[in-house]
Amino acid sequence: MRYLFRITGDDELPETIEIQLKKGVLTLCVLALLNRSDSYAYEIASTLSKAIDMGEGTIYPLMRRMQSDGQVETYLVESASGPSRKYYRLTDAGRRALETQTAEWRAFVVAVEGVLNADAAAGAAAPVATTEERGAEQ
Predict the structure, then answer these.
(1) Looking at the predicted structure, is the pLDDT value of residue 24 above 60?
(2) Class of residue 34 by CB neighbours under 10 A (exposed 0-12, middle 13-18, buried 19+)
(3) What is the pLDDT of residues 55-111, one digit of tens each?
């Protein structure tokens, strides 16, 4: 498995990477949460908001997509404090997606750690050029 990265030189790259990483693992996180127990969208959104600082608005379209993809199914549960809640549960396809995405995520983490560790080892042997030094070289 290969992962390609594009470096843009943009000063806001760390924020962009963080946002992209969150978007990339959001489905995996939802699948993992639903593998533990059935849940409703607001509860999933609240959990992910606390865990990875993901906005609530991103969950609802994702849940609809996961339902149309056959990864989750819904059922209604009466609520004593208001209208019935739509609960989500994993389907067999959702469990397979969780297994696949978990394996892909772990392989990705190992690949990134390999790159970071190689850079750390190289960094111990040679100093890293500053932005100004790199600019002067060009």
Answers:
(1) yes
(2) buried
(3) 778 899 999 999 999 999 999 999 888 899 999 999 999 999 999 999 999 999 999
50 and 21 in contact (C-beta within 8 Å)?
no
Residue 20 has pLDDT above 90, yes or no: no
Tell me the C-alpha distance between 36 and 7, whole Å.
37
Look-up of token digits 């696949």: 100
Pairwise CA distance, residues 36 & 48, whole Å? 14
Which residue's structure tokens are 């100093």? 127
Under 8 Å between Cβ of 94 and 34: yes
Burial letters for 71-101: b for 16+ Cβ neighbours within 10 Å, e otherwise?
bbeeeeeeeeeeeebebbebbeebeebbeeb
The amino acid present at 94, given as its one-letter code, is G
